[in-house]
Design a protein that fits this description.
The complex is a heterodimer of chains A (196) and B (404). Chain A is mainly alpha-helical. Chain A has seven helices and one strand; from the N terminus they run E-H-H-H-H-H-H-H. In chain A, helix 1 packs antiparallel against helix 2. Chain B is built from 13 helices and three strands. In chain B, strands 1-2 form a two-stranded antiparallel sheet. The chains are: A mainly alpha (196), B mainly alpha (404).
Chain lengths: 196, 404
């Protein structure tokens, strides 16, 4: 069978504004959930690791770049963003739990299904209540350069959710997921200051 | 198996009313459900909406209070069924994803009906129409990858191919050439009447869906593509509704509607893979059986005829969602150049067709062409799912011009 496709440009490569880019990532996240669910053993651990990393990059980029724009640029933006942040917090907590039990645990499928439902709802809410208004209220010229910042942050984000030497001093109660999100946030901030 | 709806009893009408809690169904999963489960949901939604609209139209010309009451009572139950069925669709799917499923319905439902239809003229009408919805699927799939950066294969799986059909630009015909010749109510096989009603209901709902969701998009190409295809779906409604014999009495039509609902719920119950959805098909079948009996009573009272005269003696072969790839490829090979003239089909671009084309295009390419051009310019090629080899028509193979 031949699925004709444009030189492997599924996802985000062809995106020309940041909303399109983030919607593309939502689709990748959605498909990665399916991949994790359908695989076992090492394949599942790999897919799960990619999922966690993508979630870290994606959520951090939204937190740092998108939510501030919505807060100031969209009517009622403050409350809209607060709703999104509480969804993100809820998802992050689930992610921590999921990582605790690990991909080989028999609790994993149920917890993963819960996380998936929460992340997909969150993504839908962003698209419906944030992105469409962002495009309407914020000039395209302001949205366009954000793509390269998100890309740069993604390239620099840590690959493994396990803390490396650099975070050896970090509080030991902070698990790998939290630490990955923290390190990603630092990367995104760094990328913002060099790209602005 | 013999299942005769006229002999089966269901849930008494006064036991069919549902509360909020019973209406609040859990939707199917947007990514893990069988594509054909979504197709069955979309089909039954279209059927229920037709049941509602038909009943409203009947009520408007009905002077008899008692009949009006009966219609209102059953209609209220039908609209609850519609809510339950359509609310099975997940809220996290975008309208465009649902659109792609709508076209998958149009393709595999119409192809199956065309294969099973005993009347050659009606068969020709379905074969003509299916090549157009087949092309819509291809156009929307390209829009989907542009807007959402995801491949339509994630929605239709590999059950339905996504390749050009009769190019959408050629669907814009003079309205009088969309009116077909009706079947004869006294001579047509009962199954032919059910087929026509089913496809008409599906196309009508598709039209309504597009003309409502189209303007919710912001991207100009999306707005324009929905507008163009919604115009074609209007032509399809005209095409399919004109197959019904206008000489059928209102009572006869009511009975046909209820019988068709029994037929389809029974068919889908037989093949449903999702347990929860299957339970809904079964419940609704048991409701429809009593709608049918009530309709039959009205026909006996007011039409002075026995409904058995117009209905099939037993339920026809179950209507099935399944791949129709080889059949569609054969149609692509032989019927892609057809258009209509009066109630018939011809292969030349006659004067009335040409005039209409010029007027609608106004010298510009339609959105259905531009969506492919734009996809080409972003991705370097168009999007297709070809599971059975290259396109049967060389001029529609990948790399050949989108304008065919
Ligand atoms: Fe997001
Ligand atoms: Fe119904
Ligand atoms: Fe269509
Ligand atoms: Fe259609
Ligand atoms: Fe009914």
């Amino acid at each position: 069978m031949t699925t004709t496709q444009a030189a492997e440009t599924d996802g985000v490569d062809a995106a020309h504004d940041v909303v399109e880019f983030l919607i593309g990532q939502h689709m990748q996240i959605r498909d990665l959930f399916t991949e994790v669910e359908k695989s076992t053993g090492k394949a599942r651990r790999d897919a799960f690791e990619r999922l966690v990393r993508l979630l870290a990059v994606h959520e951090t980029a939204e937190e740092q770049l998108i939510h501030p724009l919505v807060r100031t640029g969209v009517h009622g933006g403050g409350d809209i963003v607060d709703d999104r942040l509480s969804e993100e917090r809820e998802a992050k907590e689930m992610l921590v739990k999921l990582e605790d039990v690990g991909p080989d645990s028999n609790q994993f499928p149920l917890l993963l299904a819960k996380l998936r439902a929460s992340v997909l709802t969150h993504a839908h809410n962003e698209e419906a209540y944030e992105f469409r208004y962002l495009r309407r209220e914020v000039a395209a010229s302001e949205l366009q350069p954000l793509v390269s910042m998100v890309r740069a942050a993604e390239a620099m984000a840590p690959t493994h959710p396990h803390p490396g030497v650099e975070s050896a001093t970090a509080n030991t109660v902070v698990g790998p997921v939290v630490s990955l999100f923290d390190r990603t946030k630092d990367m995104v901030r760094a990328s913002m200051s060099t790209n602005r | 198996m013999t299942f005769n709806p006229l002999e089966q009893r269901g849930i008494p009408l006064d036991k069919q009313l549902r509360s909020w809690r019973e209406l609040d169904v859990e939707p199917v999963d947007p990514d893990h459900s069988d594509p054909y489960t979504k197709c069955r949901i979309i089909t039954m939604n279209g059927i229920e909406i037709e049941a509602l609209l038909f009943s409203h139209n009947f009520a408007r010309i009905c002077p008899d209070m008692e009949v009006k009451h009966k219609l209102a009572e059953i209609r209220y139950l039908e609209q609850q069924q519609q809510k339950v069925v359509n609310w099975l669709l997940p809220g996290s799917s975008s309208p465009l994803e649902t659109t792609i499923s709508y076209e998958q319905v149009a393709v595999d439902l119409t192809a199956w009906v065309a294969r099973m239809e005993p009347d050659p003229y009606l068969t020709q009408c379905y074969e003509f129409g299916v090549l157009e919805d087949f092309d819509h699927l291809y156009r929307y799939a390209n829009l989907y990858e542009m807007l959402q950066h995801r491949k339509a294969e994630k929605i239709v799986d590999q059950l339905t191919e996504v390749i050009p059909g009769r190019p959408t630009r050629y669907h814009h015909r003079n309205p009088i050439d969309n009116v077909r010749k009706p079947y004869d109510r006294s001579a047509a096989a009962p199954i032919s009447k059910l087929h026509a009603l089913t496809i008409l209901s599906a196309e009508q709902q598709t039209m309504n869906f597009y003309l409502n969701v189209g303007p919710q998009y912001m991207e100009p190409i999306a707005r324009q593509l929905y507008q163009e295809i919604a115009m074609v779906e209007e032509e399809h409604v005209t095409h399919y509704e004109s197959l019904l014999d206008p000489g059928e009495t209102w009572w006869e039509r009511l009975v046909n509607h209820e019988y068709n609902e029994c037929y389809l719920y029974y068919s889908f119950m037989e093949q449903e893979s999702d347990r929860k959805v299957k339970a809904i098909w079964e419940l609704h079948l048991n409701m429809e059986l009593e709608h049918l009996h009530a309709a039959c009573d009205l026909m006996r009272q007011h039409d002075g005829r026995d409904p058995a005269e117009v209905l099939a003696p037993e339920l026809p072969n179950v209507l099935t969602f399944e791949p129709n790839k080889a059949y569609l490829r054969e149609l692509l090979d032989t019927q892609i150049d057809l258009t209509t003239l009066g109630t018939g089909f011809v292969s030349e671009a006659h004067e009335r067709f040409q005039k209409m084309q010029d007027a609608v295009m106004g010298g510009e390419d339609p959105a259905s062409d531009r969506v492919i051009d734009e996809h080409n310019s972003v991705f370097g090629t168009d999007y297709r799912i070809e599971t059975e080899g290259p396109h049967p028509r060389p001029e529609l193979r990948q790399g050949a011009t989108s304008k065919a």
